[in-house]
Amino acid sequence: MKKLFFTYILLLASFFSIKAQDRDQQNRFKEIEAAKIAYVTKELSLSPTDAERFFPLYNQYQKEMRTLIHQRRTKTGKKRSELDYDSEVLALKMRYRDAFIPIINAQRTAKFFEAEREFREQLLQELKTRRND
């Protein structure tokens, strides 16, 4: 009986530990997303009005991009070659480029894709630095 009780307590503690880790990961993801939004806003010099019009479309773009990445990682759906995946990503970026231009103009739209890449590079550099410390 004591062994069963101890096992139950251990499993319960493990469950709560896993749930806490999930919440920590979700919080980190939200922090990264907030930092990315702040970075993009600053780099594009978005006014509050521009940001109000831009970010709903940006969120839709992010959702579709995550779906593509998820499909690639989990191998769900049809099998695609690397070139097929790259062409789908490019098609998505081109479609949203055309949608962003009326909102933030062509110059800032081009800068958006650069800023997005720069943010990813900075984030990866930060992760490498943390792992090495």
Task: Describe the protein in words.
The protein has four helices and no strands. About 4% of the residues have low confidence. The chain starts with a helix and ends with a helix. Helix 1 packs across helix 4 and helix 3 packs across helix 4. Helix content is 90%, strand content 0%. The radius of gyration is 20 Å and the shape is globular. 8% of the residues are buried. With 133 residues, it is mainly alpha-helical.
Write the layout of secondary structure elements.
Blueprint: H1 2-44, H2 48-74, H3 82-104, H4 106-132
Radius of gyration based on Cα positions: 20 Å
Q: What is the end-to-end distance?
A: 46 Å
Residues in helix, %: over 70%
Spell out the helices and strands N to C: HHHH
Task: Record keyword descriptors for this entry.
133 residues; 0% strand; mainly alpha
Could you give a short description of this structure?
By secondary structure, this protein is mostly helical. It has helices at 2-44, 48-74, 82-104, 106-132.
